Amino acid sequence: MSTTYRTPRRRARLALAAAVTVTAALTGTVSQAAPSASGTPSPSPGAAGLGDPMFPLDGNGGYRVDRYTLDFDWQAPRTPFEATATIKATATQSLSRFNLDFGGNTLHGVKIDGSAARTSRAGDELTVTPKSPLPKGRTFTAKVTYTADPTQTRHRDDAIEDYGWIPTADGTVVYPQPNGARLIFPANDHPSQRAPITFRITTPKDLTAVANGKLVDRTERPGDRVRWTYDSEQPLSTQLVQLAVGKFKLVDGEGPGGLPLRDVVPDALVEPTAEYRKLTPDHLAWLQEKLGPYPFDRYGLLVGDTDLAVALETQTLSLIPKADLLGTKVDAERNMVHELTHQWFGDSVALKSWSDLWVSEGHARFYERMYSEEHGGDSFEAAMKTAYAAHDQWRHDVGAPAEPTEPNLFKRMRYDGSALVLYALREQVGDATFQKIERAWVSGFRGKTASTQQFIDLASKVAGEDLEGFLRPWLYGSKTPPMPGHPDWVVDPVQG
To answer: What does the record give as EC number (predicted)?
Structure first.
C-alpha cells in the first residue's frame, strides 16, 4: 500500500472496543483439551484469535481454510444484496466449535456439511457450533448465507484512511487492508492465513465484475444479468482480496516473457490513463532484473474511480487511484512500482504477523525510490538522509520499524523509515551481497509466510556473517544506529 500522506479525512471511528473486550473474555485462546478415556483429545473450541500483537482476535484457531467460494448477487451501488460464502476447511484439532471473522452484514445461517449449525456473534467474531464435533483432520464445508452491505466502511487515522467497501459512482472497489475483508465475507482474517478463492459475482448486464486472478467463465443469466467467475489461481491473504463492480473496460496486454496483463479501467478513464498504464511492462522488466521472476501468473491495474488517495497491492490486480494516473509521470510511476513490488514482498511472501509489515512496506518504498531516482525523480540518498534525520522522532512517536502499535501501524516509519533499514543493510554488506539476500528471500519464501526473525537469519546466512547485532538495533532499538558509510548523517533531537 502506498499513500501521499496527505491529512486524512476525519470520520467517527467505529466503537468496537467494548464488543471485542467481551469477545476476548468469552472466547479467548483455548489450551489443548484433556484426553478422553480413549486417549484421544476431547473436542474443544478453536481459538477465537491468533494473538497477533496488533489485532489479537484476528484470525482463528482449530482449522485451516482450503478454499473460499464467494457467490455475490450484486444489485446496484449502495444496495444490500444476497451473498453466500462456502468455506472448505480442515480441522487441525478436534473441534467442538470454531470462529470466523465477520463484521457487519446480516447473517441468515450457517450449515456444516449440509446440517444447520448454531451461531452467536460478538463484535467481529462469529462463533459456529456444528451439530456434531469435527474430528482432527476432518475436511468439512461451512456454508454461510447472509445479506452483504456494500456501504460498510471503517476508518483509521493513518495512511489507510477508509477501508472496507469503497463505493464508486456505478459500483464498488474494496480496500480490505488491514482487516476489512470481514466486511466483505466471513473469513480467517489474518495475513498469515492464505487460501485460494473462487469468486462468482452476478451483476446487471451493463456492469462488469472483476476479482483477483483469472476470469474463467462469463455466463448470461435470466433477467438481463451476467455471472462472472474468477479463480485466484494461487492462495492469497484476505487483506489482498480485490472485488470490484462497475462500468469497466478490460484492457489486455502482454508483459515480459508473455506474462498476461489485464487492466480494469472505468470507461471514461481508459484514454486519459493509457499513457502511464502502458509503462507496466517496463516496471516488470526492471523489478525482475532486481528480484527474479514475477511470482504470479498474471498482473494488471485496477483504476480506482474514488477520491481515496490510497493505492493497494491487491494480489495480481493492484488498485491505483485515478488521481495518480492523471498526475505527473514521476508520481504515477512511484505508486505503480510500489504496488508492483508488493507482489513479491507482502503478496508472494506474506506477513507472519502485522509486526512484520516493515518488510513489506519497506521493500516497496525502497524499490519505488530507487526506480524513481533512475527515471527523473528525487535522489534516493537524499530521501534516506531525510528519513535518517527523523528516525529517532518516528521511533518515539510511532515505534521502531518492527515494533509498531496498532494505531500507528501504517505511519511513515513503516514506509521511508523501514526502507532506511534496508538502505543501511545494503551499506553494511555491499550491493552485491544485498542483491543476493533479496533474491534468496523472494525465492526461498515464495508462496509462504515469513517473519522478521527469518529475514535476519536469511540475511546472516547469505552474507556469511551474523547480522543479528546489526539489524536488531535498527529494527527494535529506541535510538537510531549510525549509518554505515555516512558518518556525517545526523539524527535530529526528539521533540516532545
So the answer is: 3.4.11.2
Distance CA 42, CA 148 (A): 36
**Cα separation, 404 vs 398, whole angstroms:** 6
Q: Which residues pair with 44 in a beta bridge?
A: 95
Over residues 223-277, the pLDDT tens digits come to 999 999 999 999 999 999 999 999 999 999 999 999 999 999 999 999 999 999 9
Q: In this structure, are strands 63-73 and 197-204 parallel, antiparallel, or unpaired?
A: parallel
Lowest mean pLDDT among 38-42, 249-253, 314-318: 38-42
Backbone angles phi, psi at 335, to 5 degrees: -70, -40
DSSP secondary-structure letter at 256?
A: G
Average pLDDT, the chain: 93
8 A C-beta contact, residue 327 and residue 224: no
Q: What does pTM read for this prediction?
A: 0.92
Q: Left (φ > 0), alpha (ψ -120 to 50) or beta: where does 271 sit?
A: alpha
Judge if 254 and 310 occupy the same domain. Answer: yes
- For residues 279 and 326, membership in a common domain is answered with yes
Of 262, 318, 418, residue with least CA distance to 1: 318
Helix (H, G, I), strand (E, B) or coil at 295: coil
Q: How many domains does the chain have?
A: 2
Query: Nearest-CA neighbor of 409 among 339, 353, 472?
Result: 353
d(CA 231, CA 180): 21
Predicted confidence band of residue 27 (pLDDT cuts 50, 70, 90)? very low
Task: Provide the domain limits for residue 410.
Answer: 350-476
Q: Please indicate, yes or no, whether residues 354 and 449 belong to a single structural domain of this protein.
A: yes
What is the end-to-end Cα distance of the chain in Å, rounded? 29
Q: What's the CATH number where 425 sits?
A: 1.10.390.10
Residue 6, pLDDT above cutoff 50: no
Cell of 334: 512511484
Query: Is the separation of the CB atoms in 156 and 176 below 8 Å?
Result: no
Measured CA to CA, the distance from residue 246 to residue 134 in angstroms comes to 41
Grid coordinates representing 47 are 481459538
Q: How far is CA 372 from CA 322, 329, 330, in A?
A: 19, 10, 7
Cα-Cα-Cα-Cα dihedral sign, residues 375, 309, 152, 147: negative
